[in-house]
Structure formats: C-alpha cells, structure tokens
Amino acid sequence: MILSNNRGAIVSLFILLLLVSIKRVKNNSLKFIIFISAITVISLILMNIKVVLLTINNIVSSFLGTRINWLDRFLFQIDQGDILTGRAGLYNNASVLIEGNPIFGVGIGYFELFNNGQYPHNIFIQLFTEFGVLIASVVSLLLIVGLYMCIASKVEDNYMELLRFFFILSIPRLMLSTTYWKLHFFWLFIFLCILILRKKLRVKERRV
Questions:
Q1: Opening angle at CA 23, ends 4 and 155, nearest 5
Q2: Where are the coiled-coil regions (predicted)?
Q3: Distances (CA, A) of 70 to 1, 4, 5, 52, 99
C-alpha cells in the first residue's frame, strides 16, 4: 500500500490508527489532547512537507532498495510549484461556480460537464458546488457530528463500530480524491449518523 500510487489509502491508515488510539483512552480530556496533538503534528508536517517526504523517500530507498511512486511524483510536482497535484485549476473552477450560485449550487454533474469529466477531488468543495450553502452546510455539520461520535462516544455497540469503519473507508478518501456518488461507504456513514442521532433523541424523549 505504501509503495502504491494510492495516497488516500495511506491517509485512511493514519486515520484508523488515530481513531484506535483515541478509542482506547477513557478520559475525554486526554482524547481531546491526543486529537489536538495529531492536528498539530499534521500542520508541522504540511509546513515542512518537502523535507519530510524527501527524508521518508531516502529512508525507504536505503532500507528497501526501491522508490515510492507517489512520493516521487508528489516531490516532482512540488518542484514544479504544484503542491495541489494538478487540482488547483479544479479548485479555482469550483470557487467560480460557488460564487455564481452560492445558495442552491449548480446541480449534480454540472462541474464534471465543464471540466472534462473531472470532479473537484474534495468532498466539501463538491458539496458546496453541487448543492450550495444550504444543503452543503447541513451535510457538513452531519459529518462533523459523525466524527465527534467516532471519537468521543461513550456508547460502544455495533452501530458505533460500523460508524467508525465506514468513516475510515470513506471520508479520508473523499478529502483527497474520488466522488461520493461512487463511494457507497459514504452513504452508509451518513445513514448510520442519522440512525444513531435518531436513537439518541428517542432515548432523551423517553427520559423526559
């Protein structure tokens, strides 16, 4: 996986390890500290991305005698001033569409129609482009709530295990590539989020 061209798989693996680590911690304050620490480390890596990638590539080359394809390609694109790996143009096109249709979006498939069949390669950009602020904000809030439940939920049952499983298999990939229309794990994650939230609301109503 590491030697392949799939960076989304690497990110998914990192998210999996992070969630497993947080899940084992019982104290919510410590969970928060671990989460913030992870965000800080990621930020530092992004600020020194070229140095980090060169170091990793050199270590792998020394010990395994091979090169990591996606790292070589990414380093080349950084040297060319294209750290977004060719997606800057897609993001710019999406921002123009969002500015022109901020409330209701441009609709499903419109972006691909005018970008040679390419999609935005980011779930939030795609949501705001296709559906506008109203619907995209609701879905984004649901994703944030789902992430919070994955990290901080005190209830441990089959629903929560599935929620974490579907999150790991969908959201990291959708942040970097692919489209949610092709990823059934995303829709299963959304369905479970709504199901768990409804379950929590019913429990509260019974207590009242």
A1: 130
A2: none
A3: 11, 7, 5, 14, 33
What's the count of helices (H) and strands (E) in the chain, helices before strands? Answer: 9, 0
pLDDT class for 13, splitting at 50, 70, 90? low
Q: Does the structure show a pLDDT above 70 at 146?
A: yes
Q: How far apart are CA 122 and CA 75, in angstroms?
A: 21
Residue found by looking up tokens 């901020």 in the block: 102
pTM of the model as a whole: 0.70
**Residues in CB range of 54: below 8 A, 6 or more apart:** 75
The residue with tokens 């579907």 is: 166
Domain residue spans in the chain? 87-207
Using an 8 Å Cβ cutoff, are 50 and 74 in contact? no
- What residue spans of 65-207 are helical by DSSP H? 69-79, 88-100, 110-113, 123-152, 158-176, 184-207
Contact 151, 174 (CB under 8 A): no
